[in-house]
Amino acid sequence: MVRPKVLFLGASGMIGPHLTPGLEADYDLRLADLRPHPAGLQVLPVDVTAYEQVLGAARGTAAIVNFTVNRGDPQHSFRVNVQGAWNVMRAAAELGIRKVIHSGPEAVMRAYDHDFDVGEAPDRPGCGYYGLTKLLSRQICRSFSRRYGIQTVCLLMCYLTPPPAAASRQDFHRFHLVYDDLQQACRRALALE
């Protein structure tokens, strides 16, 4: 069986190395990042802020998974989080790629921590620069998805951790997401018809 080719941007970041082991059995992953992979896997050097690099890396793939992020530097953060999302969606539109997985932080939970019956709550990213840039990136994804018919799944996370130790007596926050569950979410998002 031929495995679909998937471009995985941000493969060497804080989350990517925890996800690729759960995806490589079902997908032919083209790992891309500016840093080497911590496990020594081959990584295509791609700067998500450079459109031609994203376009070249995405050629011949069926889907793009974007786990790139920058929090520290305001200018670089905007380029990676916002312009990077623009480049990913633009490349998908140009190449006819109909599936994109995008990542970001949750933007509503803290505003509704006290409530248990909230329907469709509006995004509340706060006034932090990181949250605002990721909100802009989701708006870009939404616009390209509607205009070009790209199925875009935005995985919004609150706390991401390894599974708690079975013998641990520490409290585990109710919105923690463990790596294995995020792998499952990515597999299901990629498999959606």
Could you explain how this protein is built, in words?
By secondary structure, the chain is of the alpha/beta class. Helices cover 37% and strands 19% of the residues. It has five helices and eight strands. Strand 5, helix 4 (129-148) and strand 6 form a beta-alpha-beta unit. Helix 1 crosses helix 5 (179-191), helix 2 crosses helix 3 and helix 3 (74-95) packs parallel to helix 4. The mean pLDDT is 88.
From the structure above, extract its key features.
globular, six-stranded parallel beta sheet, alpha/beta, two-stranded parallel sheet, 193 residues, 5 helices
SSE blueprint:
Elements: E1 5-9, H1 16-23, E2 28-33, E3 44-45, H2 51-58, E4 63-66, H3 74-95, E5 99-105, H4 129-148, E6 151-157, E7 159-161, E8 176-178, H5 179-191
Parallel strand pairs: 1-2, 1-4, 2-3, 4-5, 5-6, 7-8
Helix pairs in contact: 1-5, 2-3, 3-4
The string of secondary-structure elements, in order, is EHEEHEHEHEEEH
Approximately how much beta-strand content do the residues carry?
15-25%
Morphology call: globular
The stretches of 5 or more residues where confidence is low (pLDDT under 50) are none
Largest sheet: 6 strands, parallel
Q: Helical residue percent?
A: 25-40%
Gap from first CA to last CA: 18 Å
Mean pLDDT: 88
SS summary, helix count: 5
Q: Give the strand order, joined by hyphens, for the main sheet.
A: 3-2-1-4-5-6
**Which structural category do the helix and sheet elements fall into?**
alpha/beta
**Rg over alpha carbons:** 17 Å
E-strand count: 8
